[in-house]
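User: I'm designing a mutation panel for Large ribosomal subunit protein mL43 and want to avoid disrupting the core. Could you give me a predicted structure to guide residue selection? Please restate the sequence first so the numbering is unambiguous.

Assistant: Good idea. Sequence first, for numbering, then the predicted structure tokens:
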Amino acid sequence: GEREFGEKRGEMDARTGVWQLKKLVVSYCTHSGSSRGAKAFVENRLPKFQQRYPHLEVEAKIRSGHHPHLEGFYRNGVNKPIGVKNESAQDVWKRAAFLAEQWGGKHSTSQQGHRVRTQSQTVQGMWTPFTN
């Protein structure tokens, strides 16, 4: 059936109605142990992933002797690599989905920690080239 707009978080940019991730590259090595999960993702889960994100161009690249990684290419020109060394096929799926559902902005990952604000002014003052 027809889904309500915005029912699924991150499916498309609510501002433009356009998916932001346009291409996902999965790079892995066929014989390296650290690539086992990425290789299993490509061999067993990639067709289902492409059904889930039909707008997305997905490319699998074999890079012998290199650790596996995903790289997302966004409409705004930003690209984001994520290492998936020694991760399971399920974890590779989660990371690929994370990239697929990002806006592609510079700070689209959630910020860790809290900003610290203080009432007291700094004694140090502003630095100038003539400070010392």
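For picking mutation sites, this is relevant: DSSP finds two helices and four strands in the chain. The two ends are 70 Å apart (CA to CA).
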